């Protein structure tokens, strides 16, 4: 990209941007919500044409872009969309990706949710395997298992990729370089996301020092200009002009966007015991959600619910909150509970309604007789002033909700949530689309919140920083309570004691061994990779068998030479991948045993 400039009627999003992505690059693209990350990615993909500048893609290099809202018109099923553009012999790649990403290729497009559509678009991109993959929030709507699968696939790929994600653990595991969009400027550091925050803070510190020095110089020059008049008949006009230039330069410095003025205000305290659930069982259509599940939640607890999509996390929370009746068991709620709910589907937001009307039209925020004010924790505030606290400007106040980015919608929903007094928060996927700074602030607010938190999230880093208890829903009605966050759950799960029939000393030795392996052996990504490799090896064998069967047609070479060549190349690729996977399994297995 050479000299790229782009404006949407206001200040330039980019101006004179030069950027190179090399073969094999693994790049994190980071920046505040609304800074232009998705726009830059669309420019890279050729979907948005810049006002000025050139984009060069070498001949024969393919670029694939995962759209956040894929256009599926003309396709009847998700599988039909995902396999479009692939050769008939390559459809197995979509099946394989579909297994890892957990999407049903037979799902009709018209009944598919937004998350299912995104998973189909991601499966399509992974199957196409372009030389450069542009991935805009690929982990949104994926559960932790699917995120682990995608992480392992991207770790193994030889393709280059540029990645936008709010998932710190995902970014840390995969990236080797960072692109940072900040106030129209794109900076690059040849370090992965692990080094981003220290790099960002150093740049901001240098900026602040430069501003401070310039302010002092302007102040000194202004004092000279005023005090020197009485001592001179004629001013030094060059020095006056220099002062004017200094002031203009200082005015042109774009101030950093602050953090949202978010705050959770606790209502009067609830009782000490918030929820007491005993022997809960629940199922739908013969499928158990939980079986004989018990949990006690005390005031101030932060309880995280983890597990695959569709396992019933939201249903269990609704049972605990008394919204859904269990088939068996009892739920006793504490006294003086005032809940506030963050809905992962954003169902509380009408896309056609303006931000202004979205707040003033909310019955819980409406101020009687005032169309321009909202009630915020018992006090009236002007609606635009309140929106500005969440980093929305005057123009956005009258814009429709549908014009917002995913992160901005999340901020608007938080604005509605934080206007209420509460002493129990139910947060269902609150981290989706939020930028790093807002995630940090949300974590700090939850740390300071005096009430109780029930949390659903697939963000491993966020779970580790917030949760004091983790409920792991593992399917078949099994829900197990662990102390701590995601890493604590993984450690405890890996160090469970042996059956009672074993000797206690042997059980203790095994536990110590497993804990040691957890600390000194395989990393989280390596452990997940070791667990995934047998399935990958099995799938590669099946793919090789399919390709060999396809190539057995004696007339294929003369009738379809292009298909014959592609299938032959794919067969060689599969054999190489199988050999690499078997070797990788041996290395990781030996490392695990050594650990």
How does this model look, in words?
With 595 residues, this protein is an alpha/beta fold. The chain has four domains: 2-198, P-loop containing nucleotide triphosphate hydrolases (Rossmann fold, 3-Layer(aba) Sandwich); 205-252; 273-338 and 421-492, P-loop containing nucleotide triphosphate hydrolases (Rossmann fold), CATH 3.40.50; 524-594, Orthogonal Bundle (Helix Hairpins), CATH 1.10.287. α5 (144-156) crosses α18 and α7 (196-227) packs antiparallel against α8. The longest helix is centred in the last third of the chain and has 34 residues, at 561-594. The protein is globular and about 85 Å long.
SSE diagram, text form:
Layout: E1 2-7, E2 12-17, E3 26-31, H1 37-45, E4 52-54, E5 63-66, H2 78-83, H3 91-101, H4 114-128, E6 132-136, H5 144-156, E7 160-164, H6 168-174, E8 177-182, E9 185-189, H7 196-227, H8 237-252, E10 273-284, E11 287-298, E12 302-306, H9 313-320, E13 328-333, E14 339-342, H10 355-360, E15 366-367, E16 370-376, E17 379-382, H11 383-389, H12 394-397, H13 406-418, E18 424-428, H14 436-448, E19 452-456, H15 460-466, E20 469-475, E21 478-483, H16 486-494, H17 504-520, H18 524-551, H19 556-559, H20 561-594
Parallel strand pairs: 3-7, 3-8, 5-6, 6-7, 12-19, 12-20, 14-18, 18-19
Antiparallel strand pairs: 1-2, 1-4, 8-9, 10-11, 10-13, 15-16, 16-17, 20-21
Helix pairs in contact: 3-4, 5-18, 7-8, 18-20
